[in-house]
Amino acid sequence: MAELSRFWDADALVAEPYIYSADEFAEAENRSLQRSGTLLGQNNELEVDAPGGTKTVTVNTGQAILRGYWYQNSASKALTIDDTIANPRIDRIVLRWVAATRTITALVLKGVEAATPSPKALTQTAATWEEPLARVYVANPSVNLTSANIGEDRKFLQPYSRSYQRQLNQIENGHAEGASIAGWAVSNGTLEASTTQKNWGEYSFKFTASAIGGYMRYVLPDEKTYARPYYVRAKVWAEVGEVTMDVNGAGVAKDFPRNISSSTAAWTLLEGTYMGDGSGVVNLDFIATNNNDVFYVDEVMVMEGGSYDLYVPGIADVINYSRVGQGIIQLLQRQGGSATVWETAGTTDYDLRPSTAPKIKAYAGCVAINVLMGANAATAVITFPSAFAYFPMTWVSFQFATVGAIGGIPYRPVCSALGGSTTQVTIEIAYPVGNLDGAASSTVNWLTIGPEA
Fold first, then answer.
1. What is the C-alpha R_g of the chain?
2. Residue 219 sits in the same domain as residue 307
3. What are 210-263's pLDDT values in tens digits?
4. Helix, strand, or coil here: 26?
5. Is 338 part of a structural domain of the chain?
6. Which of 1, 327, 340, 365 has its CA 20 to 30 A from that of 405?
7. Banded pLDDT at 383 (limits 50, 70, 90)
8. In which domain, by residue range, is 289 found?
9. Phi-psi region of 332 (alpha: psi -120 to 50; beta: other; left: phi over 0)
């Protein structure tokens, strides 16, 4: 058969083979996702931790796809780690898919003891597939396990999207001794594959800053020339001083949300989201905050893709970076006199859906404006984070309006947007008559929407 399509409804009146097996459904799912892995953002993402005081680890709730077959763990599952006999060992926590028994199970893949142990290789065949979740460093003599014994080993999938993961250092293997540092650039410092096992047997990258500070950088090699969202996460160990993770910061922390950094001499997870600017370049930096800082970096992961939701730690909302206003308002059409120049007045309807029009973007904020005593108006200039292609549309409203006295009589102010450009807009607060008896400060919300440059 040269051509094949599925899935179709069965027709009871026609003898057609529209009965499908589980393998046929799984084949379509597997080819769509193109890989197996843990589903990002689902429950607790199958994170493995140690409760402490025991020789057990716990697989938390979450979901995964293995060779097109869906798996869910709806309750924490405890797994016992065997004692060592003569040398330390690195065990793996895996999900094992077995075709013959039609099962997917979380279990311990026991390693081999050695003076310098390595984890056991995964079985990934058409009959048995092992998907990694974590590595557990088991000391000799054996002791109760803590989170310091557990290392990340998951590979994530974005649900319902075409995206993929890059493990930028220690590619895919994640923990191999003497891993290649190819692709990493260094400014004012030295970078090496560390031979120091930080707590649980993991070899990582070590960066030592010079007397004037420094950073290590990875340039994503095939970044696209259109805006797209990125989810970035890494584990760092700040042995001396502090380390900051940044994206497109030119070696100086600026663009990545809230200066994500660590100054703790222990493995710390740094993660955040970044919206690519379409420049075709994405630089991922780990920056020494001070002179002569020393830090370790491991498990660097960048996920990139189209339409998907990302959870920003510290914000209790899900933010969609791929569709403006998703979940709040969907901007479908605009009225005006030009399909591209938004400041041209008119009554023609123009479709704004991505399939028929250039992409749009939105910026919003809140600004305080103080009208001085003896004056009746004041302005503030808002500069957009990046320029629009043409003049955008701006709306303003009061967050808090201060009633001002003029000749002892109270008056409410009005706010308006006084024109602007592709890069900024001027917002004004004004009182209707006369000048104020005393200063009055108000805050104004603003929203600007327009075509991307």
1. 28
2. yes
3. 888 888 887 765 555 445 556 677 778 888 888 888 876 655 544 444 346 778
4. helix
5. no
6. 365
7. very high
8. 162-318
9. alpha
